[in-house]
Amino acid sequence: xxxxxxxxxxxxxxxxxxxxxxxxxxxxxxxxxxxxxxxxxxxxxxxxxxxxxxxxxxxxxxxxxxxxxxxxxxxxxxxxxxxxxxxxxxxxxxxxxxxxxxxxxxxxxxxxxxxxxxxxxxxxxxxxxxxxxxxxxxxxxxxxxxxxxxxxxxxxxxxxxxxxxxxxxxxxxxxxxxxxxxxxxxxxxxxxxxxxxxxxxxxxxxxxxxxxxxxxxxxxxxxxxxxxxxxxxxxxxxxxxxxxxxxxxxxxxxxxxxxxxxxxxxxxxxxxxxxxxxxxxxxxxxxxxxxxxxxxxxxxxxxxxxxxxxxxxxxxxxxxxxxxxxxxxxxxxxxxxxxxxxxxxxxxxxxxxxxxxxxxxxxxxxxxxxxxxxxxxxxxxxxxxxxxxxxxxxxxxxxxxxxxxxxxxxxxxxxxxxxxxxxxxxxxxxxxxxxxxxxxxxxxxxxxxxxxxxxxxxxxxxxxxxxxxxxxxxxxxxxxxxxxxxxxxxxxxxxxxxxxxxxxxxxxxxxxxxxxxxxxxxxxxxxxxxxxxxxxxxxxxxxxxxxxxxxxxxxxxxxxxxxxxxxxxxxxxxxxxxxxxxxxxxxxxxxxxxxxxxxxxxxxxxxxxxxxxxxxxxxxxxxxxxxxxxxxxxxxxxxxxxxxxxxxxxxxxxxxxxxxxxxxxxxxxxxxxxxxxxxxxxxxxxxxxxxxxxxxxxxxxxxxxxxxxxxxxxxxxxxxxxxxxxxxxxxxxxxxxxxxxxxxxxxxxxxxxxxxxxxxxxxxxxxxxxxxxxxxxxxxxxxxxxxxxxxxxxxxxxxxxxx
Length: 803
Description:
Elements: E1 4-5, H1 7-27, H2 29-44, E2 60-63, E3 66-70, E4 75-86, E5 89-99, E6 104-115, E7 118-128, E8 134-143, E9 148-157, E10 162-171, E11 180-190, E12 194-204, E13 207-218, E14 226-227, E15 231-235, E16 239-251, E17 254-263, E18 267-279, E19 282-292, E20 308-321, E21 324-333, H3 338-342, H4 346-349, E22 353-364, E23 367-378, E24 389-402, E25 409-420, H5 445-456, H6 461-465, E26 472-482, E27 485-488, E28 491-504, E29 514-527, E30 529-534, E31 540-554, E32 574-590, E33 603-618, E34 626-638, E35 641-650, E36 655-668, E37 671-680, H7 702-708, E38 713-722, E39 728-737, E40 745-753, E41 757-771, E42 778-792, E43 795-802
Antiparallel strand pairs: 1-2, 2-4, 3-4, 4-5, 5-6, 6-7, 7-8, 8-9, 9-10, 10-11, 11-12, 12-13, 14-16, 15-16, 16-17, 17-18, 18-19, 19-20, 20-21, 21-22, 22-23, 23-24, 24-25, 25-26, 26-28, 27-28, 28-29, 29-31, 30-31, 31-32, 32-33, 33-34, 34-35, 35-36, 36-37, 37-38, 38-39, 39-40, 40-41, 41-42, ...
């Protein structure tokens, strides 16, 4: 007989033998004796044999070097390289017994038990193949499906997903030497639920660090409601702190987080964040926090500030239909100091403005219609009621399209804006106040400070008020037509005419309706030619040259008493040429075919370099008519190297008016370097000079005051990232003010993350500035902050401090 037993087929053979024995005893007694001796030899003689495949319908299979069957006890005994298989369970050991009557089994010696949940190594196991329950002695359970490791002197499988371990330990991190583990006299583990224990200790690196008489730990791999890990902190702003969060899994598409923070120097802060996803293209979040800040008015510009402080926001994405989408992105704060007092990231602390938008856009081929309700909240001040708010701004833009069957093309740029300020200057808007601009009186202290900036910059009071304190509505319409004409090969002449009508609900110094009409005329010559160069099997190289010249003319309109909100209101007389030259360099080649691929790969084309020049020749200037030249250089040889430089040189002042640089270089797979440069000179309010992009600079509202400070912007940004492997990463990034030594921001991050634990060190140094409402001067404070995060898979510890 083979050393493999197939129980059901073997029983059938025995039953057939029994049925025939009665007949044999009566007619052939000697033959019965002979058959009985042969039967005994077959049953009780050990035999070694190879494994035999299961036959259809069989529930259990045993392979072994020696396999015996005890007919009286209905027990199969196997020894030597035993392999026991039933359903999804597989057991290997040195020796085993199986009861054909009850399904019970025992196994010992190098036991390895495996099923769909994981693997158990033990010295001995007692179980039942039919119920799936059992007891493992001196066992180590690696539950791959649940992602945990359980050890115990005795582990009882109490149910399909429930275990009890006596004298055991639990860990989600490592097998031989786990970084952390929970040890206890008794542990109960329910997969996708919790680990509970009595008289437990938490050990890190084998060292006991925490004891508790009762322990509860979630091990769900799916989302669940429950308390999140607390976060402890220490800082110079808020003192000692602790944060407790509760996560509520409301449904598969909805959840919420409730938060409580104790801030030692400030009080108790409560928060809520609710997230939802109605559909794939309809989702969002609502969030808010509140604190009664007993330290709100502690010093300087905060004196007398309201102690009830809060933030609230809403983010909502909604695609209504094809090419129609909208969104709500709001973020409101009780005061302008909220972020600098409570934000944990440098980016949020130095945020200049809070911005909220409600947007709806409809697009179609050749045009789009949009409505945007935008609100700005200035940070760093207690309140700012003179900020210019475009609520709403509605635009209808049509790109050039052919008029019927003719060669003419028409286009439209149009927009309506309602400019709103909570407070403005007392002027003729108030009938009881004189209209003489020298007697106009600012309403608030911050408005007075703004007026002083304007007058100190050389503007009289009347001109200053043209830029500040005005609110009203504006409708701007700019229809135009063009006629492209092919003169000769590769040369196109496109004349254009248009009329820009701008309507105002009120004038600069009166409530009377105001308007301004500007006639546009111009044209352009453009050409394009190229040459290809073969690179052999590597592909080809194409050099494209695009020269061009455009002319713009706008007649002189005379002085208009219109309010000035932005660049639209500063458009004036023009008689100028733009001389343009663009060089593009394209590389074309085929990728390497994949293994087994028969057809050729698709052609890949990359613009590796572009060089652009735009010189402005102004006929209105008396002497130096070449006013400026704009240059741009884009470099993109490979995915590892990218660079963009653009600048504007002013021939009149013999100096660069702007210079911008962006560079990204991937030195190797593990090292990346980035650098940026921003430099812009002051641009006077009464100037129509173009910026580096060739468009008029936006001036109006607070932008006017920033420009009048006559300091412009000048800073460097840089970052270096190093990631030698998947676990370790390091980065150093900085913002450096090139104008003076204030306003610098430097951040260093060092991170080490493994599958079950991680650590990150963050060190920030930055200058914090706040406008003092009393002195109207900026208060500067240099802050050094160090934060340390330590994560043990589901457990998270956070420590940070301000120095």
